[in-house]
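Memo to structure team: turn this sequence into structure tokens by end of day. - J.P.
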Amino acid sequence: MTVFSALASFSVVAGLMTIVPGLDTALVLRAAISGGRRHAFATALGINTGVLVWGAGAAVGVSALLTASQTAYTVLRLAGAAYLVWFGATMVWRTMRRRSASLTTTSSGAGPTEITDTPAVAAGPGGAWARGLVTNLLNPKIGVFYVAMLPQFIPADAPHLPMGLLLALVHNVEGMAWFTLLIFGTHLARAWLTGARVHRIIDRITGTVLVGFGLRLALSAE
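Reply from structure team:
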């Protein structure tokens, strides 16, 4: 297998993985709706940074530890699950608080007030990048995918670390292209999507999905 054929083959596998709806897609869409393109791209860059870290780890054998050591895998799995449940539950709770504040303001005669201090907006682009990075790094499924797939696409005579990073970079390029389509598509409908009521519904759905991902990860035996 040559370097070129390895990159071409891996690009097909990574491309299919990219377009399958999952946690990363949910985070980027939510950031695009609540914070706009800047926050969404920051979140996408954070996710892609995590992919590079996993790629490097798989190339040098760090991800192999998660496969060989049940304890290491379990610790990371539970940490990731706790983070997702906390993040999702916080998002849902904030929508309830904003709804309560809006009703209180309306009943006082001051008129409805839209409160938009969502986590993505309040944290800024730096926080959005960190959230994308942490979420990706605390997902052991990504590590297992990389340790299972990456070695198959590293030619025998190729240096492992540079080749692993190059393969992860291919995944990054495809991921960013997909996220860009989602972000600009969301931007076109943002005038409708950022209405107070729609915003609350989207945050509740996204938060519930994150909690679901977290619980599924925590209860997963593999």
